Structure formats: C-alpha cells, structure tokens
Amino acid sequence: MTGSFRKMAGGGGCVAVLAACLVALATGAEIHRNERGKTMIPGNSVINLGQQTNTWRPLAKTTANLTDVRSIKSTFEFRTFDPEGVVFYGDNHSGDEWFILALHGGVPEIQIYKADILVSVTGGPRLDDGQWHLMEVSTEGKFVLLEVDGSKALTVGLHSQKVKEVITGQLRLALGGILIDSSRLLVPLRPEMDGCVRAGSWLDLTEPWEMVEGGAELRPCLEAIQRGSYFPGSGFAVFNVSALRIEAPKGGVDIVLGGDFAQMNGTLLSLRGGDHALALSLEINNHSQTMLLTYGKTEITTSTITDKLRLIFRERFFAVSYDGDYIIDSATDQTVEQSIWREGQLAIGGLLGEEEDAVGSNFLVGCLEKVVVQGKQLDMDLSDKDVSISSHSCPVR
Predict the structure, then answer these.
(1) What is the average pLDDT score of the chain?
(2) SS3 for 172?
(3) pLDDT tens-digit map of 49-73
(4) CA atoms within a 13 Å half-sphere pointing along the CA-CB vector of 394
(5) Looking at the predicted structure, is the pLDDT value of residue 198 above 60?
(6) Closest C-alpha among 194, 148, 121 to residue 388
C-alpha cells in the first residue's frame, strides 16, 4: 500500500489516502441493503455520526483497492457542538499504518502511525460551534494538510526510512470510530462524535459505505440545532456517582438543570443509592405545567416552570430554587445519605427502578441545555446512555 501511495504522492504513505479519503456526504442519496442485510449508503450521503451502540466501533466503513485511488485530495462539510470525538479513520488492511481525524478541545487533531513513527498534532480553529465548516485534506510530498474554510489549519510532516515498498493492497475507511485497538492511540480521547458530515468528495472513489450497525435506521441530520442534550423519549443516561467524584461536605450537594422546561415532558432526573432504593425523582408535565418531586416518602407538586432549576441537598433539608427563590422548600427528617454520593446512581431523563436492572418508562422528551453537579458540567458521553440521546445537540423549535 505504501509503495503505491509513494508513487502517487512522493512518500506520504497511506497517510494522505487515509486523511483525504474519508468524506463524501450529500443529500438525496439512495439507501439500500446488500445480500448480508447490511444498510449501504452512497458516498454522497449525509450521515449523523452520533448513533453507534458501541463506543469505538465505527458507524460506517468501506474498503477500496489502492489501485482504484485516483485523487489525493478530499473535501467535506462538517458540523458539531461536540468538543471531542472521532470524525474518521483509515488504514491499510492489516492496520500497519493508520490515520485518525478527530476533535480534541473543539479543535482538529490528527493522529498518524506509519512504520516506526507515531505522531499527534492538534491545532486550528474551534469547530464545535454548530456551524457547517468546509474541510479539505490533501498531501504535498511528505506533508498532510488540513484546511478549514479555505485557510490552512494543520500541516503534518512525516517520513520514515523503514517504509516497505508495497504497490498493491486495500484501504479500510471508517466514519465515527476506529478499526484498531484504542490502546494504540498516542493521545487518548473519547470517540463519540455528535456531529454530521455532508457534501463530500472521497478521492473519486465510488464504493458505497456499509453501516456497521447492520439494518439500523439512520438518524437524520437536522437543519437547525442548538447546544444541549436531546432526549427523544426512548431512553435515559445513567451516571455512577462514584465516577463523578462528588465531594459531599457538610455544605451539601448542588445540582443545576437548565433548559426550557415548558417544552419538556417526563422525568428530568432520579437518584438511587447503592441498595437500589429510589431516593429522589423530579418529573415534569408540560400539559399541566407542573413538576412533581418525590423525595423519599414525600411528594411535592408545584406549578412553577422555569428555565433554570437548582436542587439543594443539605443535612435535614432539601430545596428546589429558581433565581434564589425556593419553589420547593422542605425541612425534613429524611436526608440523602452521604453514601449515595459515593455508591449511588444519577439518571438524567428517566426513572431509576428499585431493582438493579429496573427502569421506569417515563422517559424525558426535550432538550436539557445543561446539567451541572457541584459546579461541573456533565458530559452525556461519559454516561451509560441510550443510543437515541444526542449528547451535545438539540433541534431548534
């Protein structure tokens, strides 16, 4: 594979092919299934990358013969609010050389492995602004170039004396995940990418992409999005509280929820301890414009709907406040035990059951703009969440 590429581009190895080839998504593409029942999508499809059920496994992949590669430049449009995740991956068939384009801290990151060299470069403009950006990946001799919106963003030079001459072979390409073990990455990252790609040109290759998830339905890329986590009413996100490393001093614990609650319906959050007993739940009904708080054996209903709620846990005291005013104020003999902040579970968008694997069905429908625990914004990508949830984007109403 490397020899074939060097013949084209003067020594860049599979790097340029990998970097340049992963893109090709435009509207109006026809979707069909192959003889194995796998969904096949043409190279000019629009794809929502945020719908894998396996963390590292790609959403879609394709294989091409290197002899079919006619171009060393690819372009595509990309849009996301997600600051971290894999956009695309490529390698030779055995994975001896590979390339990854990802976001890290909202800016592009390229990781390349070739022969005896492993390199990672991060830089360029922030792309997690929810706008469509034109991306171009190409090679010039031993350099891989990334341009964003017509301006140079990254230049990666790479050369090895140990490259083997291989003039034939296959190239594997993948969207939204990788095809090697994640331990091989130089810089660890979270792979989930809540973003879309479209309008691409992939080295003039015409082979369709195969959906790794088989016959799964494609989630659409919405015309207009806003920041937040969208819950469509079919699942929820669960955090092990121990992983959040919540310090629960005598001052207590605060949880802040933000969003247009008048447009939501279902369970905002629930909390249970290590014994699986439900300690708290907060549900919203947009038909009656009420909220129901269940706190131990206490149930409190309020008709106040706001855009920012603060849950305040103190010893022998619990409150829900808005702009400093308590809309639920309960001095009680009940208290959320300290052990819950070490061993419990916090669910966003659904009701935790009292059995180990039990869950309620009153799932949230709506957009949570933020969930902040002890001053730290929760990232839904760090939870055990239903695949239907969009971690970083919501539809604009």
Answers:
(1) 80
(2) strand
(3) 887 666 788 888 888 887 777 777 8
(4) 19
(5) yes
(6) 194
Could you list the residue range(s) of the whole structural domain that residue 210 is in?
Answer: 2-218
Helix (H) or strand (E) holding 86: strand 85-92
Measured CA to CA, the distance from residue 66 to residue 378 in angstroms comes to 43
Place of tokens 């986590």: 229
HSE toward the beta carbon, residue 107, CA cutoff 13 A: 9
Q: How far apart are CA 99 and CA 89, in angstroms?
A: 6
**Angle subtended at Cα 106 by Cα 257 and Cα 384, rounded to the nearest 5 degrees:** 50
Amino acid in the structure at residue 185: L
Dump the DSSP string for 316-344: TEEEEEETTEEEEEEE-S----TTHHHH-
SS (H, E, C) 122-160: ECCCCCCCCCCEEEEEEEECCEEEEEECCEEEEEEECCC
- Contact yes or no for 97/13 (Cβ under 8 A): yes
Q: Give 240-291 pLDDT, tens digit per residue.
A: 988 887 766 566 788 999 999 989 999 999 998 877 788 889 999 988 888 8
Structure tokens at 9: 């581009």
CA distance linking residue 232 with residue 363, whole number of Å: 8
Bigger pLDDT: 326 or 78?
78
How large is the average pLDDT for residues 177-193? 91
Q: How far apart are CA 344 and CA 279, in angstroms?
A: 10
Q: 3-state class of 243 per DSSP? A: helix
Spatial separation of the C-alpha atoms in residues 324 and 256, rounded to whole Å: 12
| pLDDT of amino acid 215 | 46
Partner residues linked to 197 by β-bridges: 47, 78
Phi, psi of 277, deg, nearest 5: -80, 135
Q: Which of 184, 218, 252 is the last residue of a domain?
A: 218
> Model's pTM, two decimal places?
0.84
Domain boundary among 199, 218, 237: 218
How confident is the model at residue 162, as a pLDDT? 67
- Binned at pLDDT 50, 70 and 90, residue 393 comes out as very high
Are 101 and 154 found together in one domain? yes
Q: Does residue 382 sit in helix, strand or coil?
A: helix
CATH number, domain at 61? 2.60.120.200
Cβ-contact 333, 263 below 8 angstroms: no
